[in-house]
Specification:
Layout: H1 5-30, H2 39-61, H3 65-88, H4 94-118
Helix pairs in contact: 1-2, 1-3, 2-3, 2-4, 3-4
């Protein structure tokens, strides 16, 4: 049975995001760096997660990697927003829109790379 490229990419993206978040949290714990200065690092972690997730999704699909990456980016943003909404009662914010602006193109680029890795 063939796994869904979208589900595989989302699994890898969430895994990369969790590992990146854990590393960033450990660095914050061990240093005196204020949390407010880590916003760009958070965006980089999400972008890297989407790039890798898009690569997995594109490689598994074999074609239309950009499309798989865009779908993955939209799904990723929806999942992150839903977790934030349910856990912290946060609505649609500027940060959510920034995340969408980073995640969707990163996923599309990753998907294009992933399709070319299959060959």
């Amino acid at each position: 049975m063939k796994k869904s490229p979208l589900l595989s990419g989302l699994t890898y993206a969430v895994g990369v995001m969790l590992i990146g978040t854990l590393i960033a949290s450990l660095i914050l714990l061990a240093t005196d760096i204020p949390e407010d200065s880590w916003r760009k690092t958070t965006w980089m972690i999400h972008s890297l997660a989407m790039l890798i997730g898009g690569m997995v999704s594109g490689k598994r699909s074999g074609s239309r990697g950009w499309y798989q990456g865009i779908l993955l980016g939209a799904l990723y943003v929806a999942v992150v927003w839903l977790v934030g909404f349910l856990a912290y009662d946060s609505g649609l914010t500027k940060d959510t829109l920034i995340l969408a602006g980073l995640a969707v193109p990163s996923g599309a680029i990753g998907g294009m790379i992933g399709v070319n890795l299959k060959r």
